[in-house]
């Protein structure tokens, strides 16, 4: 697991300890960033279920202005901090030790508007739709924000959740990446 591009390119990230965290593979991460590359520069990022901080760190390395890393595991928080220090990207980040829904509420209370949300929850745990509902209801998205969800190919996720719609899905073996945005007539 390494940073693929940008100012921290080539840095190896500390891997997770144990089997609780399943980091996004470099191949999947590269595909995600090929798709969203024009949206990353100066973006405000939220990395939900951060694990190692892999996706948020990649975004910061590629020019995102700020990343919020969210995870409730103390072990993951420790790894995220170490990876941010190693890549020298800690000054552009904030770490929230919290579950995803509480973190979204905190961002909303802080009047934070985000450009890209990464979600990589544990597979097959029915966590995606409740979090997407909370994101949609919280109004933390800008009109052109993107939500990138990594999930098991067997996970069934609605194509539309409120004003959030899936506009692209890509499969990599047992892993799927679903891309969501707000319905175009929504502000």
From TrEMBL:
Chain spans, region Disordered: 1-22
What does the record give under GO molecular function? 16S rRNA (guanine(966)-N(2))-methyltransferase activity; nucleic acid binding
Q: Which domain of life is it from?
A: Bacteria
**Species whose genome carries this gene:** Alkaliphilus serpentinus
Lineage at the top is: Bacteria, Bacillati, Bacillota, Clostridia, Peptostreptococcales
- How is this protein named in the record? 16S rRNA (Guanine(966)-N(2))-methyltransferase RsmD
Please name the PANTHER family in this protein's record: METHYLTRANSFERASE
Q: Name the PROSITE patterns for this protein.
A: N6_MTASE (PS00092)
CDD domains named in the record: AdoMet_MTases
Q: What is its EC number?
A: 2.1.1.171
Q: Which InterPro entries match?
A: DNA_methylase_N6_adenine_CS, RNA_MeTrfase_RsmD, SAM-dependent_MTases_sf
Tell me which UniProt keywords the record has, alphabetically.
Methyltransferase, Transferase
């Amino acid at each position: 697991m390494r940073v693929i591009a940008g100012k921290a390119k080539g840095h190896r990230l500390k891997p997770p300890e144990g089997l609780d965290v399943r980091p996004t593979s470099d191949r999947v991460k590269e595909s995600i960033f090929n798709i969203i590359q024009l949206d990353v520069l100066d973006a405000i990022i939220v990395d939900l279920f951060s694990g190692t901080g892999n996706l948020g760190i990649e975004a910061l390395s590629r020019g995102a202005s700020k990343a919020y890393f969210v995870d409730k595991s103390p072990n993951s928080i420790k790894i995220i901090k170490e990876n941010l220090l190693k890549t020298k990207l800690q000054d552009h980040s904030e770490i929230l030790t919290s579950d995803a829904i509480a973190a979204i509420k905190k961002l909303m209370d802080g009047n934070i508007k985000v450009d890209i949300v990464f979600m990589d929850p544990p597979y097959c745990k029915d966590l995606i739709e409740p979090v997407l509902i909370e994101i949609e209801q919280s109004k933390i998205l800008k009109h052109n924000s993107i939500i990138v969800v990594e999930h098991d190919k067997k996970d069934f996720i609605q194509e539309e959740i409120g004003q959030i719609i899936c506009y692209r899905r890509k499969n990599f073996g047992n892993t799927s990446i679903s891309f969501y945005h707000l319905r175009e007539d929504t502000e």
